[in-house]
Amino acid sequence: MSRVYFFLVFFSLFLISLDRVFPLTGIRSVSQVVLAPVSYGLYQGAARANDSWHFVSTLPHIYSENQSLREQISSLTETAVTIETLQSENNVLKEQLDVKDSVTEQKVLASVIGFSDENQSVVMMLNKGAADGVKDGLVVIVGKSLVGKVTRVTDHVSYVLPPYAVDSRVPAKIIHQNSDVGKGIVRGQFNSRMILTDVLQDINIEKGDIIATSGEGGVYPANLSIGKVSEVSSAENEIFKNAVIEPLWDLKNLKSAFIVLNY
User: Fold this and answer.
1) Which pTM does this prediction carry?
2) Class of 107-263 per CATH?
3) What backbone phi and psi angles, to 5 degrees, belong to 205?
4) DSSP state of 38
5) Any idea what the Cα angle at residue 168 is, between residues 117 and 101, rounded to 5°?
6) Which of 70, 92, 140, 191 is the right S-S partner for 147, CB 3.0 to 4.6 Å?
7) Where are the domains of the chain?
8) 27-76, pLDDT tens digit by residue?
């Protein structure tokens, strides 16, 4: 193919020289028709070569710009996470300020740093531990709502058993139309939801009733909200009836909570 191009180019030069001596109007017209595709092909080839060289020469700039954009996205993501965490802590602090605590109650604000499994139960990990005065058995709250109980502590981490964990058992009372109408046990199920069990059949319990800690057994203080009834299950031939409890807080997405140090 290259030989044909060279021949045509040489032939065109020969005709141009000949035309200067002998006018070749007819032949010139024919040669223009024949050589037009050649010149157009050479023009396109040069244009493609120029575009390719321009693309290659701009690759370092494109790479640098791409890296800069990646860094900006990463920075914006970190900022968004920080803002979300601060907003969550701010909400927890506002909730706590609205609660009238006893003068002697001492609390420490902790951030949720993850979740783990212990003895088939899910546990929440907080970033405060023995070095901050935390010990086993302390209660974790948000406002006047129960988050869980500290079951294990290291120097800088607390492990909290939430009420929806399979090993959790919380003595509770049923608040129907602002009155205590009965008692039961809030148990964790599947590490994902809470069930109120051991409720006598004659107890009036309805959807929307509030479930709070009863304080029996001394493990949890009384009057901490656990959740509200979302569904009641009852059978006439059973001694007890059960209810599904919906938490008042989204415990699985909680970012921070208070550990009560002197309970």
Assistant:
1) 0.63
2) mainly beta
3) -130, 130
4) H
5) 110
6) 140
7) 1-98, 107-263
8) 555 555 555 555 555 555 555 555 556 555 666 777 677 766 766 665 56
